[in-house]
Amino acid sequence: MLGPRTSTRSNRATARSVAAVIAAGSLVLGLAACSSGAEPDVDSAVSMRSEGTPTSSGADGGGGAPATLEADPAPDVDYSDAPAEAAPADGSYLGIKDVRIGSHDGFDRIVIEFIGDGEPGYWVRYEDMPTQQGSGNPISVSGAHKLSVDVRGTGYPFDFNVEDYPNGPVKPEGTSAITEVRGFGTFEGATQYVVGIDGERPGFKVFKAQNPTRLIIDIEAR
User: Are residues 178 and 79 in the same domain?
Assistant: First the structure.
C-alpha cells in the first residue's frame, strides 16, 4: 500500500521558512560583530583641525572638534615601548592636513593625515625630558610619560598653502592612556608632536596607511 503523499509545494514553503529564520539569525550575529570592539568610539575622537573651529584649549584642556577615527587594522605585532624609526620614501614632500585622536577597544589611536607626495618617515620614542627641535627649549605636556613623535619628510605649511599645521594642544576625553597631544612646529624636514600619557608606561605600534596617506600610532590601554 502506498503511504500518504507529501505536497511538494508544502515542502518548498517549509524550506523557505527555515531559510528565512537562518538569514535573520545571521543578520543579528553580523550586527553584533559590527558593534564589537573593532569599531572606534566616535564620541571620544577629536580632530586638531576642523574648518572654522578653533583647536586651542584653555586651562582645563579640551580643544579640537568631533571627528571619526579610522578603524584600519594594525600590524599583527606585539606592543613595545622601544623606539620605532623609519625613513621617509625617497622624494617625499608632505604637509600635515589633520591630526585625530581617539579611543578603540584596548588602545588609543593617533592618526596623522598628509597632503603632498610620498610616504612619511618617523621617529617615535619615550623621553623623560623632551625638548623642542631647533631651539632646545623644554616641552611641557600633561601626563606621567612623554611620547615624542617626529614626523619626517615634511615641508613647511606655506609650501602647501596652509597657515599652519594642527598643533593643538588637545586634551581628548574618553581615552585610556592619552592625556594631551601638542605640536611644536617643523624644523629641517621634521614636524614634532609630543603625547602625554598617564598610568603605567604602555607599549605602542606605528604603521602607515594609504588613501589618504596617514601615519597611525596605537597606544596600548592598560
Answer: yes
Burial class (CB in 10 A: 0-12, 13-18, 19+), 166: buried
Asked if 178 contacts 195 with a C-beta cutoff of 8 angstroms, the reply is: yes
Handedness of CA 143, 146, 149, 150 (dihedral sign): positive
Considering the domain architecture, whether residues 155 and 58 belong to the same structural domain is answered as yes
Give Cβ neighbours of residue 168 (< 8 Å, ≥ 6 apart).
48, 55, 56, 57, 63, 64, 99, 180, 181, 182, 183
The CA distance from 220 to 122, in Å, is 19
Instruction: State mean pLDDT over 171-184.
Output: 94
Exposed, middle or buried, 50 (CB in 10 Å: 0-12/13-18/19+)? middle
- Statement to judge: residues 112 and 30 lie in one domain: no
Across the chain, what does the average pLDDT equal? 81
Residue count of the chain: 222
CA-closest candidate to residue 170, choices 92, 36, 64, 99: 64
| The three three-digit cell numbers of residue 28, written as one number | 543579528
Q: Is the pTM of the predicted complex or chain greater than 0.90?
A: no
Q: What is the pLDDT of residues 48-98, one digit of tens each?
A: 875 434 433 333 445 566 667 778 889 999 999 999 999 999 999 999 999
User: How crowded is residue 85: how many other Cβ atoms within 10 Å of its Cβ?
Assistant: 13
In a domain, 174, yes or no: yes
The dihedrals phi and psi of 138, each to the nearest 5 degrees, come to -65, 145
- CA angle, residues 168, 170, 171, in degrees to nearest 5: 160
> Which 8-state DSSP code applies to residue 22?
H
Side chain identity at residue 15, one-letter code: A
